[in-house]
Amino acid sequence: MAEKKRSDQGRERWSQGVTEGSDALDLEEGVFTWKDPKRIARSLKHSAESSGRRKSSPYRSAMSMLTFYVNRAGKELDAEQREVLERAKDELRKEFGRA
Fold this sequence. Notes:
Layout: H1 8-20, H2 37-50, H3 58-73, H4 79-95
Helix pairs in contact: 2-3, 2-4, 3-4
């Protein structure tokens, strides 16, 4: 019996849908494409603190969304943007006083 294989396009749509339609956070458009890690962290913090739908702490929701994006977009991220997003994690920790 032949196995069904998901297309790369289907996976991209799934993760994009999660990022754009998260039940936990309303993200600013293009937040993960920005070049300033501090700006990304501030935006994620604001989104997490403003959300009435999140199920965990604002810090955890914001960090989870950032980590999710990095992990799901991993192959498609260029090295420069990956570094910006990794630095945004450090900035997010600082924003929440967890550095």
